[in-house]
Design a protein that fits this description.
- By secondary structure, the chain is mainly alpha-helical.
- It is globular and about 70 Å long.
- The protein has a domain of about 170 residues: MetI-like fold.
- The two termini are about 35 Å apart.
- About 70% of the residues lie in helices and about 0% in strands.
């Protein structure tokens, strides 16, 4: 058989596998969206149907009116934005210091710093809660965000990116009289947009989807985030499934929007890593 036909067959098999994986991943989201457009007694029946008998947006209306959904969403947006911006700031400074500054014991300090990634996050919940309670920050925005303002993964990612970039532009900027901070602000950061977009996307998704810490640290309704609010919607004996699915769809939209905004830079970061390594 001709080598070109073998290549086409192999490519076709790969496309079929990818399409099957795409369908498997999209089906739960499609069921969630379609269920949010159904009546209350239409989601789980003996004759379950994917398509709603009559499209209705009453689930969205109930989610916005009968639940403090907007307050939950505002809390999630605020907390996720603060954590993302703080992690970007701290990761750039730490990554640049570990990649460019030469000081005694740099590699040892970096190894100790990134070794924190091997500690499960669940093991840190109790000591973190005890510190937050001692500081009197329970049920506050500071308590929700303070333990996540810096992290070893961001420093590791940015250090790896800085080490893979040439130093010629930085050296030219230093010769022109720029300080280290000016080089970082005017040369390094503009060149690091793909890595920053990738780190920002991952950090925002993790902060947005976090459930355990907001559940522990918040007591009042006004401080709950979306994930906690969605979980509490299922406490009824007869839950309102269209309302829950509608709320879940609304809670998923910011993540999709964040990915679409960072999609170009994210793909550039993957392409840069593939070419470099």
């Amino acid at each position: 058989m001709d080598a070109r036909w073998l290549a086409k067959i192999k490519r076709g098999v790969i496309y079929l596998i990818l399409c099957a994986m795409l369908i498997v991943m999209v089906l739960p989201f499609a069921w969630m969206v379609l269920s949010s457009l159904k009546e209350e007694d239409e989601v789980f029946t003996y004759e379950m149907s994917w398509l709603p008998a009559k499209v209705t947006f009453s689930g969205y209306v109930r989610a916005l009116n009968e639940q403090p959904f907007l307050r939950y969403g505002l809390n999630s947006v605020l907390v996720s934005t603060i954590i993302t911006m703080a992690q970007l700031f701290s990761s750039v400074l730490a990554g640049y210091a570990f990649a460019r500054l030469k000081f005694p014991g740099r590699n040892l300090v970096f190894f100790i710093y990134i070794s924190a990634m091997m500690i499960p996050q669940q093991a840190l919940i109790i000591p973190s809660f005890m510190l937050i309670r001692r500081f009197g920050l329970v049920d506050t925005y500071a308590g929700l965000t303070l333990p996540f303002l810096a992290g070893p993964f961001g420093a590791f990612l940015m250090r790896s990116f800085f080490l893979s970039t040439p130093t010629s532009l930085e050296e030219a900027a230093v010769l022109d009289g720029c300080s280290r901070l000016q080089v970082l602000a005017k040369v390094v950061i503009p060149l690091s947009k793909p890595a920053l977009a990738t780190l920002g996307l991952f950090t925002f998704m993790q902060a947005w989807n976090d459930f355990m810490w907001p559940l522990i640290i918040t007591n009042s309704v006004n401080m709950r985030t979306l994930q906690v609010g969605l979980a509490l919607m299922k406490t009824d004996i007869y839950p309102d499934w269209p309302m829950m699915m509608a709320a879940t769809v609304l809670a998923t939209l910011p993540i999709i929007g964040a990915f679409l905004l960072a999609q170009k830079q994210f793909i550039e970061s993957l392409a840069f890593s593939a070419v470099k390594y």
